[in-house]
């Protein structure tokens, strides 16, 4: 299949490479020459513009920084330039309202579109083990599923347009909350005289068990390999977690929900990022929770 891939950052680069591995012809575009060069090394073809990338594409995949850019790219550079009937897959994490707006505009322009944000981080993007939460019609999902499966291990249809974004924002708000709770518990356990490994051995098989502990432990040398073992480099940047929390709280406000724990998590991550930790993994917040 001829696929245009727009946005080759830390996540998009690995995703595009996996589409090539699956046998697709991928035309890749990014504003960063270095990102494009890496994509070419992975087997993608480089193009000078988005319009060139989508000109004969059967599917368009995007991984972009925010909703405003998604709206701008699709409205100005994809609609009317991609062939009629092309499938559009936006894997960016953006606000629900914009996802629905762009999908509606796509339908009016004659395209099927899904919002398909991801969970799993940079390592999963490179390994092809991402989880995709997909919003869109049954027909659009059926067309999108094999493309997404080439980049991930789990592809779940969450509902109509915007449902993928809703699922992603709720999931990451929960992740932020239980990472902070996990960090606080480890800090408290250590001050009470418990060895971190001993606490892990107990809590990881008890009622306090959660993904932040057993798959992404914030304590170096405890549990499976995680960013904590690399001085909190790589993984999921604090700035990105803060972005997702901000989107989640905006969505909550729109539907009249007041998530007290989500608000507190954003306050803590906001302060952590402001202290110069925006590029560090979000689990590094354990350094401040004592």
Name a few traits of the molecule.
290 residues; alpha/beta; Rossmann fold; N-(1-d-carboxylethyl)-l-norvaline Dehydrogenase, domain 2; 2 domains; six-stranded parallel sheet; three-stranded mixed sheet; 50% helix; 14% strand; globular
- Terminal Cα span: 52 Å
Low-confidence stretches: none
Number of strands: 9
CATH topology of the largest domain: Rossmann fold
Number of helices: 12
Silhouette: globular
Helix and strand string, N-terminal first? Answer: EHEHEHEHEHEEHEHEHHHHH
Counting structural domains, the number is 2
| Proportion of residues in extended strands | 5-15%
Q: For the report, how would you describe the main beta sheet?
A: 6 strands, parallel
Q: Can you say what the CATH homologous superfamily of the largest domain is?
A: NAD(P)-binding Rossmann-like Domain
Tell me what the CATH architecture of the largest domain is.
3-Layer(aba) Sandwich
| Spatial order of strands in the largest sheet | 3-2-1-4-5-6
Give the helix level as a range of percent.
40-55%
CATH C-level class of the largest domain: Alpha Beta
Mean pLDDT score: 97
Structural class: alpha/beta
What is Rg?
20 Å
Task: Write the topology of this structure.
Blueprint (H helix, E strand, L loop, with lengths): L1 E5 L3 H12 L3 E5 L3 H9 L3 E2 L3 H5 L4 E4 L4 H12 L8 E4 L5 H13 L3 E4 L2 E2 L1 H7 L2 E6 L2 H12 L2 E8 L3 H29 L4 H8 L7 H4 L23 H17 L5 H18 L13
Parallel strand pairs: 1-2, 1-4, 2-3, 4-5, 5-6, 8-9
Antiparallel strand pairs: 7-8
């Amino acid at each position: 299949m001829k696929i245009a891939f727009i946005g080759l950052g830390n996540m998009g680069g690995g995703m595009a490479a996996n589409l090539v591995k699956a046998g697709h012809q991928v035309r890749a575009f990014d504003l960063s020459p270095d990102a494009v060069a890496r994509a070419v090394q992975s087997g993608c073809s480089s193009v000078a513009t988005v319009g060139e990338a989508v000109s004969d594409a059967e599917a368009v995949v995007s991984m972009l920084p925010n909703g405003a850019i998604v709206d701008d790219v699709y409205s100005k550079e994809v609609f009317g330039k991609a062939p009629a009937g092309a499938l559009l897959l936006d894997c960016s994490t953006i606000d629900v309202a914009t996802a629905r707006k762009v999908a509606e505009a796509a339908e009016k322009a004659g395209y099927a579109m899904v919002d398909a944000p991801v969970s799993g981080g940079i390592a999963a993007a490179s390994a092809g083990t991402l989880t995709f939460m997909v919003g869109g019609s049954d027909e659009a999902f059926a067309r999108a599923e094999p493309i997404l499966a080439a980049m991930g291990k789990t592809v779940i249809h969450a509902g109509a347009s915007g449902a993928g974004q809703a699922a992603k924002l709720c999931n990451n708000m929960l992740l932020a909350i239980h990472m902070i709770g996990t960090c606080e518990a480890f800090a408290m356990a250590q001050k009470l005289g418990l060895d971190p490994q001993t606490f892990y051995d107990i809590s990881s098989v008890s009622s306090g068990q959660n993904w932040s502990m057993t798959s992404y432990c914030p304590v170096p040398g405890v549990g499976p390999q995680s960013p904590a073992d690399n001085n909190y480099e790589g993984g999921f940047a604090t700035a990105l977690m803060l972005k997702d929390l901000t989107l989640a709280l905006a969505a909550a406000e729109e539907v009249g929900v007041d998530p007290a724990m989500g608000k507190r998590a954003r306050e803590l991550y906001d302060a952590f990022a402001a202290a110069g930790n925006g590029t560090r993994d979000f689990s590094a917040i354990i350094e401040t929770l004592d």
